[in-house]
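so i finally got all the pieces together for this one. its two components total, 264 residues if u count the protein bits. some of the lines might not be protein, just check the labels. i wanna see the whole assembly predicted at once instead of chain by chain like last time, that was a mess tbh
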Amino acid sequence: MTHQHIRQAIADCDKAISREDFESLLTFYAEDAALVIKPGLIVNGKENIHRAFVAIAAHFNHKLVVTQGEMQVIEGAGNALVIMETLLDVPAADGTTSKIKRRATYVFRQEPNGKWLCTVDNSYGTDLLSAI
Amino acid sequence: MTHQHIRQAIADCDKAISREDFESLLTFYAEDAALVIKPGLIVNGKENIHRAFVAIAAHFNHKLVVTQGEMQVIEGAGNALVIMETLLDVPAADGTTSKIKRRATYVFRQEPNGKWLCTVDNSYGTDLLSAI
């Protein structure tokens, strides 16, 4: 299994975040999906996720660029657990950018039409345990 | 949300593994669930998962004890991503036991009857990325 559809969906999401195309981005989330904004702060539902991404974009002065590092996909019973390096280029105070590397965990669910939708978006991975 | 049902299911699974009650254990897995046996080795389906647990029990001389540390549950769109410390007491060559601590990631899905079933069991968490 190459998991091409899931890999493509994640690549499309990261591009949509980088260009702030939240309408396209939200088509990849299930209706009542969860997003971990930061450790201890989780929102559910497309409307709240949209609001969170608008706030995140503003927080990073509209200069956030998201790319992907190494990725592993484990598929079981209509779900897929994605373990991957997420690379963030974030603006620093002096106008340069700095890089943040996270090990993220995402859950996807396959719809009856074959499309994969994100149900849980946790870019903090297992670091959640030490963070709160 | 306290996620009491999911927490109870995981506690019951760990007890079933420790006492090698694989019949009870398998009732917590979805039909085509995935189990990461070790980095790079994944099996799907209850029959293969059963076989894997039998082999794991033998590998640890029937002395494996699994308990839980800190846990976080993120619920979205009928799925739950569980991030938790899994503590393994494993037998050493000299007859004593040693402790292994992992940061595991599990995916659960809620069935129409309300029961939560495991669809992806990856006790290696994000360490999968560096392990292969």
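The domain at 4-131 of chain B is CATH 3.10.450.50 (Nuclear Transport Factor 2; Chain: A,).
The mean pLDDT of chain B is 92.
anyway lmk what u think
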